[in-house]
Design goal:
Number of strands: 22
Bound molecules: cytidine-5'-monophosphate
CATH architecture of the largest domain: 3-Layer(aba) Sandwich
Number of domains: 2
Largest sheet: 8 strands, mixed
Number of helices: 14
CATH superfamily of the largest domain: CoaB-like
Oligomer: single chain
Shape: elongated
Strand order of the largest sheet: 13-12-9-14-17-18-20-21
Length: 420
């Protein structure tokens, strides 16, 4: 299976004799189990038919910005949003000029302008057109706008002239896309487990003991891991956040339920325990709502210790290669984190100070953490929780690169879907 499997590509085919090569590219992508949606410009449809494009891509072909049918089926915004990348093959001088200058006068150019996805272009044109100062200026603009060029190649053109401007071969475009996905998904093949949010420990069917965790940090870590290509299971307590896109999310309430869900998600290569798990649960929780009785004594609760999920994961026979915990402390943060790291048997702890009035952490979008490992202590500047997540994932990627624990070294047999 290639790393293009399951990806979604929006292919824009503009007018040029090389348009026929796009058909081969669609075939290669479909063979690699890539979802392919196509936009054919008016010029493109002079060279290949919508019927062949739609037959090969197994989807309707989109051609017209103002066609009610196209917009009702899938508008130009959704076309770009649903794709992981957009690739223009062939990219004509005209379409590149429009893209460089923000012109949106048809479905292809409007979709490109509205896109928030990486754009690749495979130019194809006569060598004189390619060399023209106007085209070269547009190429400069497109490059500085982040558009990535695949080709063109040099050689004999359909017009029998020779020079730079031939569209690169479909197999080479396919290989370039594969390299892109490999680079952009450095954790592809890794399975990750993340815990997030608070646990609720019932007192009776309506009351519980909870805490102030918002789940923002854990959810951001799960999303960042998924963006890096990991297969992520997020086990979360009650939060008011949406499930992160592309992450299998299991909702739990109590610490015991969280432990069960975590164990069902093992084996994994990475575990990040960001949940604020209640240390104790109510031993004498009631099956029925405890009634208030005027004059009667107030109920007294007795507590029993909850399982320590981080410690359980660390000593599990399926121990992940990298186990990461959090330590929210009100004082001596780093020292407490170092002790916790040893006591719980994990590899890294992200330590942060809570309870400061100028840095409340719980519920906010910011965090200031120190990454503590057995040999190191790295204090990070104040960052948003999303930035902390991205930086943590970067640290994981370096860790796996340094230790050489590639995913193929340690295959995991159980498929993701078999966990509940
Ligand atoms: O001991 P303390 O609660 O400070 O430990 C914090 C770390 O341990 C966090 O990573 C938290 O997610 C994890 N933890 C856990 N299970 C518990 C208590 C804490 O996984 N019962």
């Amino acid at each position: 299976m290639t790393n293009l499997a399951g990806k979604s590509v929006l292919l824009v085919i503009s007018g040029g004799i090389a348009a026929y090569k796009s058909l081969e590219l669609i075939r290669l992508l479909r063979k690699a189990r890539t979802e392919v949606r196509c936009i054919l410009t008016k010029g493109g449809s002079e060279f290949i038919t919508p019927l062949s494009v739609s037959a090969l891509s197994e989807h309707p072909v989109y051609t017209d910005l103002f066609s009610l049918k196209d917009e009702s089926e899938m508008g130009h915004i959704r076309l770009s949003r649903d794709a992981d990348i957009i690739i223009v093959t062939p990219a004509s001088a005209n379409l590149m000029a429009k893209l460089a200058n923000g012109i949106a006068d048809d479905l292809a150019s409007t979709t490109l302008l509205a896109s928030n996805k990486p754009i690749f272009v495979a130019p194809a044109m006569n060598p004189e057109m390619w060399a023209k100062p106007s085209t070269q200026r547009n190429i400069e603009i497109l490059r500085s706008d982040g558009v990535q060029f695949i080709g063109p190649a040099a050689g004999e053109m359909a017009c029998s002239e020779t020079g730079l401007g031939r569209m690169i071969e479909p197999q080479d475009i396919f290989d370039a896309l594969q390299s892109y996905f490999k680079l952009s998904t450095p954790l592809a093949g890794k399975r990750a487990l993340v815990t997030s949010g608070p646990t609720y420990e019932p007192i009776d069917p309506v009351r519980f003991i909870g805490n102030r965790s918002s789940g923002k940090q854990g959810h951001a870590i799960a999303a960042a891991l998924a963006r890096a290509g990991a297969e992520v299971t997020l086990v979360t307590g009650h939060v008011s956040l949406a499930d992160p896109v592309g992450v299998r999310t299991l909702h739990v309430e109590t610490a015991s339920e969280m432990l069960d869900a975590c164990q069902s998600a093992l084996p994994a290569h990475i575990a990040v325990c960001a949940a604020a798990v209640a240390d104790w649960r109510v031993e004498n929780s009631a099956d029925q709502k405890i009634k208030k009785q005027t004059g009667a004594s107030t109920p007294s609760l007795s507590f029993i210790e909850n399982p320590d999920i981080l410690a359980e994961i660390s000593k599990s026979p399926n121990r992940p290669d990298l186990v990461i915990g959090f330590a929210a402390e009100t004082q001596d943060v780093v020292k407490a984190a170092q002790e916790k790291l040893v006591r719980k048997g994990c590899d890294w702890i992200l330590a942060n100070q809570v309870g400061k009035t100028d840095n409340p952490v719980f519920g906010t979008d910011h965090n200031q953490v120190t990454l503590v490992s057995r040999s190191n202590c790295d204090e990070w500047p104040p960052l948003s929780k999303k930035e902390v997540a991205a930086r943590l994932v970067e640290a994981m990627i370096s860790h796996f690169n340094d230790t050489g624990t590639k995913h193929d070294d340690k295959p995991i047999s159980r498929p993701l879907s078999s966990a509940s």
